[in-house]
Amino acid sequence: MDNLGEKIRQKREKQKLTVEDLSAKTKISVAVLKDIENGKFDRYKGDEAYVKMYLKKISQALNMDSEQLTKEYIELTREIELEDLKEKENQEEHNEDIVEKGKKFSFKAPQLTRKPSVYEDKSHVTIIRAGIILVLVCLIIVVIWFGFYATRSQSSDPVKPDNQLTVEGDINTDDQNSTDTSNSDGTVDNGTANSETVEFTRNDFLDYTMKLPADAQTFTLRIEYNAPCWAQMSVNGDIYDQFVSKTYHEDEDGETETVELTFNVDEFESLDLRNGNNKGHRYFINNQEVPLTDEDKNTNQDRPVDFILTLEKE
Questions:
Q1: Which of 139 and 77 is assigned the larger pLDDT?
Q2: What average pLDDT does range 291-308 have in this prediction?
Q3: CB within 10 Å: which end of the chain, N or C, has fewer?
Q4: 3-state secondary structure of 204
């Protein structure tokens, strides 16, 4: 499995190119290139079409035989499938051996030698046992009675002391009224809602423009993947290395896999998030969800789609 990646590495080093140089030529993230050179193709199960596309770009950049690389990769995927199948068969054989051993195991009770002295009549032992049982029964009755009495005591209404003082008069609410003011539609305006709101404008299918508060210096993008999906991100037209290009999916507990990134407003213009599919993924800016339309949400075809987000600057 390492031969294909090692061949690409040697070709790159022979041309005196770094991984970053090759990433700039192919528009493939550094993380993906390192996985390919290290032969970690098992991480991309289900994404074989994308790997073939990567190999084609790499072969063009390094003047390698594209068809030969693709052929070697197909043979590697077959080896991976055979290894998985063999491991599954070995596990099944191991389980069958455990079941078979369990069937052959039997527990034999020890042979006890009966002594006449054990079966002699001992009336005093019987009396002691009866006394112990009687004491236990009495203890159980006492515990039940105590629990019932305690429950009744807690459920009864508390008695108000005769000397309890009460205060009568009007309560001054001027401070509250001076803090919050009501709008004409009945909503409360505390003077901070507008400064924290992000405005979104839909330009086209999964294409949005956002407007941040005037004093915002940074903003946070959170992506929730609700189905297995391969993804890659470009920021200001370049591949964004802070976003790991891979297949995102639910974890073992069924929890949604989430990606959270923070950007500087002065350095950000737009991003292009390319997803392998669009099955209910959600996007948030500063914890405010991007209001996707029904057309955007109901696009479930298994094909790559782009979520485009542009920052509107004053």
A1: 139
A2: 80
A3: C
A4: strand
Helix, coil or strand: residue 107: coil
The answer for residues whose C-beta is within 8 angstroms of residue 230's C-beta and 6 or more apart is: 47, 50, 245, 246, 247, 248, 275, 276
CATH number of the 2-80 domain: 1.10.260.40
**Contact between residue 239 and residue 215 where contact means Cβ atoms under 8 Å apart:** no
Higher pLDDT, 265 or 73: 265
What is d(CA 42, CA 26) in angstroms, rounded to the nearest whole number?
22
What is the spatial distance between Cα 285 and Cα 219, in angstroms, rounded to a whole number?
7
Contact 41, 30 (CB under 8 A): no
Closest by CA to 230, choosing from 257, 204, 270, is: 257
**Beta-strand pair 207-211/305-311:** parallel
Contact 232, 248 (CB under 8 A): no
Residues of the chain with CATH 1.10.260.40: 2-80
β-pair partners for 271 = 235, 309
Residue 297: partners with Cβ closer than 8 Å, 6 or more residues away = 280
Cβ-based neighbours of 180, under 8 Å, separated by 6 or more? 188, 189, 190
For the stretch 79-83, contacts whose Cβ atoms lie closer than 8 Å and that sit 24 or more positions apart, written own/partner, are 79/1, 80/1, 80/41, 80/42, 80/45
Q: What is the mean pLDDT of the chain?
A: 79
pLDDT in tens, 195-211: 479 999 999 988 999 99
The answer, yes or no, to whether residue 284 has pLDDT greater than 70, is yes
Q: Quote the tokens at residue 199.
A: 């405005």
Backbone angles phi, psi at 95, to 5 degrees: -65, -40
The CA-atom distances, in angstroms, between 141 and each of 136, 138, 152 are 9, 5, 17
Separation CA 1–CA 79 (nearest Å): 8
Categorize the per-residue pLDDT at 99 as very low, low, confident or very high, splitting at 50, 70 and 90. Answer: confident
